[in-house]
Amino acid sequence: MMKIGIVGLGLIGGSLGLDLTNQGYDVMGVSRQLKTCNLAIEKKIVKDASTDFKILGQTDLIFICTPIAQILPSIEKIIKYLSRETIITDVGSVKGEIVDHATQLWQNFVGSHPMAGTANQGIEAAESHLFDHTSCVITPLPQTSRDAMDKVTTIWRSLGCKVYKTTPEIHDQAVAWISHLPVMISANLINSCVNNDNEEVVKLAKKLASSGFRDTSRVGGGNAELGLMMAQYNREKILSCLKEYQENLTIIIDNIEQKKWPELETILTKTQEERPNFIL
Ligand code: NAP
Is the model's pLDDT at 130 over the cut of 90? Predict the structure, then answer.
């Protein structure tokens, strides 16, 4: 059975560790803090863990599950301990900034992005079956080894994911639309409500806000670090989405200003029809 390594024992790395350990793999973990490593052993998330990358020496497949900014530096640090056959994958939410560089550092690299998560962070947030009935995108390059791609696909499928394959470019554009843009729109909604000049209105609005506001504000009221990371690492794609969004918003504003009700109704009818195609 393959020996597996996980770097970054947080929500995603810890959850992966739990499921893979339960499947019978020997899982070796590396994390920044010693107390996280000890907790991972105690909770049977991994067989063994250390802050020293040397522990990954005998592994066949490694998942890099650190924050995005630490993915490439982690690969740079581990490769001297690995045999050429070891496959490295990552779980970063952005692929363009990662995959080319990572492949230059390590030929046997395949980019992954599991579309799973919760609002929580760190090892305490790790949970089993997090990936069950979710999607995972893999983003191989033309030169990526077929064997590495197949092994990474097989393991994600074993965790319960439906695996999609595309380029880093298309991946980043798609997640900009359905994940990164909603964070900015939702954050701007909260920001605009709070910045309203009329204090009495804001006070009452806070009391009245209910399920509609809960749904539309959820992703904008979450982890600020994650939102910032999306803007920094998927900057171009998120900017193009925001600009297209702005153009469409101008049309809606114009329809309301000019009382073009049939035009507005056409838009709202179309969005009502389309939503089920995104959310099953
Ligand atoms: P997280 O809960 O904060 O876990 C990341 C963990 O990495 C931290 O708990 C930290 O552990 C460890 N770490 C930080 N720097 C490190 C380093 N230099 N070397 C080794 N370990 C280090 O974050 P997450 O939500 O699991 O996200 C991890 C990755 O998954 C990110 O790249 C993100 O883009 C991706 N992702 C997240 C989601 C989501 O919804 N959260 C979904 C899909 C993909 P200690 O400091 O405790 O040791």
Answer: yes
CA of 204 to the centre of ligand 1 (A): 38
Ligand 1 site residues (CB inside 6 A) read 7-13, 30-33, 36, 65-68, 70, 74, 91-93, 114, 116-117, 121-123, 125
CA 32 to centroid of ligand 1, rounded, Å: 10
Give the span between the Cα atoms of 128 and 131, in whole angstroms: 8
Q: Hey, how many other C-beta atoms are within 10 angstroms of the C-beta on 42? A: 10
Cα-trace Rg, the chain: 22
> What are the tens digits of pLDDT across the range 75-96?
999 999 999 999 999 999 999 9
Can you read off the two tokens belonging to residue 136? 């995972």
Architecture (CATH level 2) of domain 3-166: 3-Layer(aba) Sandwich (3.40)
* Distance of alpha carbon 269 from alpha carbon 264, whole angstroms: 9
Give me the mean pLDDT over the 17-39 stretch: 98
Fold classified for 171-278: 6-phosphogluconate dehydrogenase C-terminal fold (1.10.3660)
Q: Whose CA is nearest to atom 4 of ligand 1?
A: 10
Looking at ligand 1, which residue's alpha carbon is closest to its atom 14?
66
Residue 119 pLDDT grade (very low, low, confident, very high; cuts 50, 70, 90) = confident
Token code pair at residue 230: 């999306």
